[in-house]
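Model: You mentioned two targets. I'll fold them one after the other.
Researcher: Yes, keep them separate.
Model: Target one:
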Amino acid sequence: MIRSPLRLLAALALVALTFVVVACGGSDNESGNSTGKSSNGSTTAGKKGGKLEQLGASDVDFLDPGQTYYTGGFQVIYATQTPLYAPKPDQDEAEPALADGQPQISDDGKSVTVKLKKGVKFGPPVNREIQAKDVKYAYERAATKNVPNQYTTYFNFIEGYPKKPGALQDIPGIVVDNPYQITFKLSKAQGPGFAASLILPVSTPIPKEYAEKYDKQSPSTYNEHVVSSGPYMVENDASGKLVGYKAGKSIHLVRNPNWNKDLDFRPAYLDEINLVTNATDANVAGRQVLSGQNLILDTNPPAQVLKRVVQHQKDQLVTLPGGGFRWFPLNSAIKPLDNINVRKAILAAFDRTAAIKARGGTFVGKPGTHFIPPGIQGFDEAGGEKGPGYDFLANPQGDMSVAEKYMKAAGYSSGKYDGSDELLMVSANVDPGKAQAEVAKAQLEKLGFKVRLRTVPQDAVYTEWCQQPKKKVAVCGTAGWFKDFNDPQSMLEPTFKGSNYSPDGGNNNLAKLQDPKIDKAMDDAAVLKGKERYQAWGEIDKMITAQAPAVPFIWDDTNLIHSKNVNAVGNAYMNSFDLAFSSIK
């Protein structure tokens, strides 16, 4: 995802089997409170009440759980909705949320059954108990053209799943066994991987009788009328319209009056949360957070702010393992990036340490040498920190002699680009994204490329530019990819599988890598388990890296800051503060 989601386990089969209840390994009591310290330095116990405000420069992509795919959207969804499973701070395993226990996977890996808790209710204006039919509708609407999303690669092997998005239809492979049990029948033996994906927001129940009229619009307008199933809700009126959502300005969360704390592991200490989404000067916002009260910053602060925090205000810093990579995708559909030797030259010349410095220095992460990040199985199999051993990624500070070798191999006798084509690079208009893109521009210019850098709001970088082929973006200057769930498949398949690419847009294969051998290797690896699976995905990572589709410049950590009086709890799955666990001291 283009956001930050779990620590991987020893084998994929175990991933799906580790959706365990807290009592199996925690000190949590029945209300969900904990007296233990989380890895981010904050206690997960808190005081009830108060209002928290988050300052940020960009809006969510969607509030609709069937569409959101970015960090900001995940942060809101896991506070306002109850998907089948949900992440818990400082815990590797996904926690049953709407589900009543672990998913049950058949011996042949072709079916997954989930039991649901009784008594969980939708918020107003629906105000009724959630049942299995609501989960079925959530998946079926995600297969329609009116609810475009980036989840379908994780479940398009459900029996009877439409070959392409169209009108709403019954999917026979999604079976409501009874009001509190649902079974997913699969055409491939991908039960363990599918079970792991049930943590995604798309598993959030949607009431058909309420949402269907909005889903009939093209595109769906349910995003403006989303009903809550979690501890909080976006403030709405009697009809369900989200009056608390001011697009591009703010999102106002209040308590869901129908939420039952006895059926939820989330403590939901805060009474009210306001997310400011137009605080475009990250330096100013960062200083306000550090000197103010009841404030948090939504993402990594600019380098100069982070340096100050690390040196003088560490008690206001939360660091989370990223579980992903940041990269500069090179669009292979645009000349001269269609030449593999040109791409290798760019990777060879690129000073990855300079880009890391622009994000805040060595404490924000290590230089990447391939695409599966540390902490995800397959990392060591792909070469670990040293990488696969390709000479064009051997020196993190760049090596112009190697770069010139590849430029000459591409037909440029001087060792530098001497053509007239201009490359369009698009990035966020705020730091640290803007700063890293400026470094990337300079790195390409070292090789003679002409680069035009266009900066846009963060929420427009992907949806309006980098994911849209018609915009002809050669280099995405603010790109990152983080695990959708705990598996190397979630790192590589959405980002590099050619058959998933769509000329109509909405792509995460930003490099437009089209390699049938890589696609086949992914299909073969998808049904494997355990060590064999991780070895296969490690080899796929090597195959991808050999094609030089992007500069993997950092395996990063996420650094978040908060006011002194905020007990800010970070969640490594979504790489942001967990609004359902944070509190005011």
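Model: Target two:
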Amino acid sequence: MHPTEPLDILHHFANVPDPRDARFITHRLLDLLVIALCATLSGAKSFEDMAAFGRAKETWLRSLGLALPCGIPSHDTFRDLFCHLSPAAFQDAFTAWINAVCGRLGFKHVQIDGKAQRGSRGLNGTCLHLVSAWVGANFLTLGQVAVEDKSNEITAIPKLLKLLELEGALVSIDAMGCQKEIAHAIRDTKADYLLQVKGNQPTLQADIIAKFEAAFAADYVGFSHDLWVSQERGHGREEERICSVLYDLEGLSTREEWVDLQAIIRVARTRWVGDKETHEESYYISSRRSTAAEFGSAARGHWGIENGLHWVLDVIFREDDSQLKDRTAGENLGMLRRVVASLVRQDHSKGSVSGKLLRAAWNDDFRLHLLNLLSD
């Protein structure tokens, strides 16, 4: 199949401002962005790869409707563009598609977590961190915000929340995000929060543990509660999870400081591998009065972002291996990789993410099929 009509995704980039000096422009912005997207869909990991892909697929790219008046851009041209392109504008180019997918598939649980690009570490010891919002059920990245180091994720999360439409969702964040301001920011989006509680909130943690100990001692008599037990066996191990929820919040000394607080949650995990037994407990707070089954599933599902997104970025896209030091270029490429990872997962044919990237590299028809998913 050879496309005979202009590619329908070109409109996504129509409103992206060109940061380059008009006097020195020889390659159209639209051409550069489409080549970068197609190359990344085909496994490109660098600006050199983008230029090489363009040279190999110039005839095919022209069939999509790209003008390419001066031929294929060099890797330096791609580098210069991504170093100066507005990350917010580039992210906005994909917003309509992301919203359309969410509207079609719906989403109930959004995970927010940060990931370091370790290869970007500079002389000052910091590296680029990208805080992403991810819908694990749909393998879809909703958006991202860049920060200079992990400690700044606290300030980045409210900025990310302002970019997203989350009404009705349950938003989970690990213990670093257990901050009163973040809870307010989530509720401002008309979503609910599920925040893990650890030692960075010592009073709240102590109160929650005491509350559950009192409930256990009374065998839950007199406590409004819900329980859910999940068991799994396989690969030589057995795991049991017990999620306990208390809705009676009397005795929490900081209760009024947490906006719309409705429930406290304890998730106990016991794992047996051969003769070895391990046990761990995690605690959460939520603005939603939900079931133990939903909270237990959401608490477990939160860590799906590690395997579903971060693993893909590191192992398949080799993100940690990138030595790119420019923060703007790193943020833009980070968004491009996340969009491609999401796009590939919207294809429901058989095969892994890495296998589909290989198919896209080898097969023009399959690559076009993936691109056309952006037209949905």
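Researcher: Noted. Anything on target two?
Model: The first strand starts at residue 109 and ends at 117.
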